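Thread: quick sanity check before group meeting

JM: Hey all, I'm pulling together slides for Thursday and realized we never actually wrote out the predicted structure for the chain we discussed last week. Dropping the sequence here so it's in one place. If anyone has concerns about the input, flag it before I start.
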Amino acid sequence: MKPHPAQQFAVGPSIMKGTPLKEIMNGQLVKLIGVSLAEVTPGFDTPTFQKRAKRNLNKLELKERALNIAHAMAEQLPEDFDELAPLLIKSLGPRLQATEQNGLAPFFYFPHSQLIAEYGADHLESGLKVCYELTQRFTAEFCIRPFLIAHRDKSLKQLKRWTKDANPHVRRLVSEGTRPGFPGRCGYGTFRMTPVTHCLCWKVSRTIPNSMCGVR
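JM (edit): ok, ran it. Output follows.
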């Protein structure tokens, strides 16, 4: 069976000295994401996607590059996020088997994270489903925040259920998404910690070592 495009993303275990991390958001990544989406999206215009995704890419920093690619993805996917979400999930590659030492390969999904954050916050159910799948391949910390801000109580109820999930990446998302101090760097507003969110972080920290760490 042919490897998924995410498995073909040729990046090393760590960034090379003197090379900015933003350089992994490049033409190779754009091409592979296009392949993964074209396989599940009827009428996907690969040349247009690639041209749009690579527009001014060299002038942008890491997050802006990921967001630029995300916008290009959105332009080729259904406008309704509830229709977009199942296609995005279907386009994903295999789940991570390890909780550490995954190198830079999971950054294949950084644009996916930006897409969810930018276009999904008004669609709680489908948005959380995508976050659930994404966190098993890359951190979903960046994209869970808008849901916690827009739908605080309902999102926290789902996170509470996730503290008992069998997958350690899902449990880790609970602490990643609710930890204090991160929103200012995320750019999606303020999420104030409460006794409930402190409790969720504590529950997860009992089952996942270093659960308060950053991007894995």
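AS: nice. Residues 183-188, 205-216 have pLDDT under 50 and may be disordered. The chain has eleven helices and no strands.
JM: adding both to the slides.
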